Fold:
Amino acid sequence: MDVMADVSHENTLAADSGAARVQERMQKRNQARIESVERRREAKESQSVAEENYEFFSSTFNREREGIEELLSGCSGADRATAAQNLEEATVRTAQLQKFLSDSTLFLKQYDLRKAQAALQTLQTSLTETREEALPKKKFAFRARTKGADRACAPAADTPPPSAVSPAEPGSTQTDGASEQCGFSNLSEQLLIKTSEEVQKRDVLLTHLTNCKVRLFGSPSTLHLKHIQGCEILCGPVSSSVFVDRCTDSTLAVPCQQLRTHNTTDTRVYLHVTSRAIIEDCRGVSFAPFSWSYPTLEEDFAVSGLDQTRNNWSQVDDFNWLAAGTPSPNWTVIPEEERRTSWDP
Structure:
């Protein structure tokens, strides 16, 4: 009887153990099923979010692109003032569209990113071609310089009103002639000065200057710099845009509404800008707040119409850097201890 009781007890234990193992396997399978369902749910939600992000990007990008194309189409057959206004708005909106694309690269697939970049490039080409067709540029010509000083800039003949000015191409050596023009060209190792009376509301062009110090007092309409090497250029408040192209190892100080910089290396910019600075094909460019001062600076700010309380000097868009969330390696902020405070010749 004892033997039979022991056998019965062992059978009971074995049965209990088998049942426990079965129950454990069932629990594991059930847990695995729950985890699988949860993973599928998370994957579905993630896919849904990605699709929603792309749908938002695609609809916003295409809607803005079509709006810019409509502005460009409106330039055909329009008067010069209307064409200039459309082109100015199209230029600003195209820059904003580029920024929107740059900020969206994290969730865009490579195919979608390349497609959007190609569309943007086509739009930029169309903008350039429309500007050249609607607002053909007049060639810039310098007046002869006297031995002791430059003559004051003379009014250009048959110039349209300021409202008809078109936004110039970055680094262009031509202007649209919407205001009086002046500047310096093909000089080296000189101190070059323009007074407020000479530059006020005029387009200023500085080109092919080497190791020069330039002081522009007053409020120009636009400022164009091209082929600048080893120079120090200080300018009063520019009421619209500053365009820089092929500037090397130089120091610039200027307040403006917009800054466009191309093909520039190892250059320091002391900036007051009310929109955002834009660089393209640049490296070694550094920025700090505008710090030059002269007796009539406040008056010139008033003439320019710039907002002195709004300075986006450190907000720089690099059109060659699309990695959102990662700083561009092509520009930096000048450390406070290294910033210029004295600008005397």
